[in-house]
Amino acid sequence: MDEELTPLDCLLPSGTQRICLIILNQPLNKDYLHILWSKALLRACADGAANHLYDSTAGDRGSFLPDYISGDFDSITAEVKAFYGDKGCNLIETDDQDLTDFTKCLAIMVEEIQRRQLQVDAIVTLGGLAGRFDQTMASVETLHHALSMTRLPLLIIQETSLVYLLRPGGHRLQVNTGLEGDWCSLIPVGGPCQTTTTGLKWNLNNQVLQFGKLVSTSNTYEPVAPGNPKKPVTVTTDQPLLWSMGICEDGH
Hints:
The strands form two sheets. A ten-stranded mixed β-sheet has the order 5-4-3-2-6-7-8-15-10-13, sandwiched between helices. Helix content is 24%, strand content 29%. It is of the alpha/beta class. The two termini are 34 Å apart. Helix 1 links the parallel strand 2 and strand 3. It has helices at residues 30-39, 49-56, 78-86, 101-116, 133-149, and strands at 3-5, 19-23, 43-46, 68-71, 90-93, 122-126, 154-158, 161-166, 169-173, 180-187, 193-198, 207-209, 216-219, 233-237, 241-247.
């Protein structure tokens, strides 16, 4: 049976996804932050992300207190660390240098979801796709770790992009929230993927996606008559396959 997901439901004020939120150490979109924060059952910052949260919520910081802040604490400032500590936020130091702060923060979140017996549909990450290229690739690497850590979808959102690593099998992605941009992509990060799709302008018919051969970037959705909803995108893959999609900016 296909795994079904509406990737951008989490950004709809009327969306019904039950989410948990991880914030990474990159500039925050305040609109995204407010929507995701209001929905999240559990909220966390990875190290220096707390600096961005602190700066972005000036004047109302008491309404934006994360459940925990984790990391090796080489990025969070002393002022910010003291503020959240005084407010009762859980500060969890994680020293393992073989894993990124994102991966370690995710591991704690998965444990907390289980410990609190939360009913969750997805874990949403804000940040992780801008700035340094190596850090973007580190975010993608965490998506690969996540496949063995949890069955929950792990989404990364920043600016006008969303990425989500599809595990092997069948997937049905709903793309009718009104927030979808024009582009979408399937990128075989990690190795060749034998892939079949429907609902795209350029579909794949049991073809192998592989760097140096074929990569489905700058794709888009199957055209439909004006006023008609987009068809769902279905993807079947034999290996983990990165789905990325555009997000409309300011309604455009």
